Amino acid sequence: MEGTGRTIRFVAFLLTGPTYHHTAMWQHPETENRYLDPTWWQSVARTLERGRFDGLFMADLLTFRDPDYVANGGQMALLDPIPLIAQMAQATSTIGLGVTVSTMFQPPYSIARAMATLDIISNGRIAWNIVTSTTDSDARVMGSESIPPREIRYQRAHEVVSLCMEFWQSWNGAQVVADKATGTFTDTKRIQPVSFDGRFVSSHGYFSVPPMPQGHPVLMQAGGSGPGRDFAARWAEIIFTLQNSLADMQEHYRDIKDRMVAHGRDPRDCAILTSVDPIVGETRSIAEEKQAYINSLIKFETAVGHVKAHTGVDVRDLPLDQPIDSFPPDAISIGSLEVILK
Fold first, then answer.
1. What gap in Å lies between CA 300 and CA 296, rounded to an integer?
2. Residue from 310, 304, 145 nearest 224 by CA
3. Residue ranges in the chain whose pLDDT is less than 50
4. Please, are residues 193 and 300 in contact by the beta-carbon 8 Å criterion?
5. Burial (Cβ within 10 Å: 0-12, 13-18, ≥19) of residue 209
6. pLDDT digits over 47-66, tens only?
7. DSSP letters along 90-117, please?
């Protein structure tokens, strides 16, 4: 956008499985499908860095949301993104690296420790994509009976992030000195123990990881519901959003910035990234031909499984021409879909 005084930021969206936004792209003849090869992930990061991307982030799904995905290759994550981000950090030097970790199931100390370690070994390039998890299948695989309501999940998320921030700030600028001459390793007088008692999480003791280069990881969020937007306006420095029209994008932008002001934040302190799935061709007709081809690869079972994962509704039991706005409102698990149905 030369001459406008504005800069376009590019952040790549990755998932450690067959695909994310298009359920059949793994079947394309030129797709490599090297999800289990660590050197491939490093090459992806290096390619994005060479292409001047500002960052990448790894989405995550805790379990298979529909059994048809396992057979047909839909929306799933095959590997834990944290070790992959560590490998990408070692293979690159400038690109930002985001990793998705849910606030629902891990102790805040574990989250804070992993994020701080990643930020240190990447020389200050880590972002935490904060999610609250959305499905009962996530809860069951992690040992719970069901996922709490959205309001409760976001109340917990506020506490988790607040506690993580206390961990990261508890060293008060102290550093590991390791002065052999004086025998001083670090100034422990400056390190404050954390004492936190919330409704959902608590912690008492010392945070063991020294201060990270950024102070805290960049906080990233993608909530599209009312509670999700309010959470993002309170904490996020990057927001990833999926909107379906220019008007929706503009409404989302205005709403987030207004909510930030209500939280006492400067609206300029958060970048909003809108999802774009480009299909590139020398001409529009060539691009449309490519789109038609990859769409032709989608299997019916995978498509209905994808809808079920996001709505909780098995459309196989419904007439295929039934409008999506007839779904029960409390069935929608993804906040951005609620906007579409308004």
1. 10
2. 310
3. 1, 335-336, 339-342
4. no
5. middle
6. 999 999 999 999 998 988 77
7. HH-SSSEEEEEEETTTS-HHHHHHHHHH
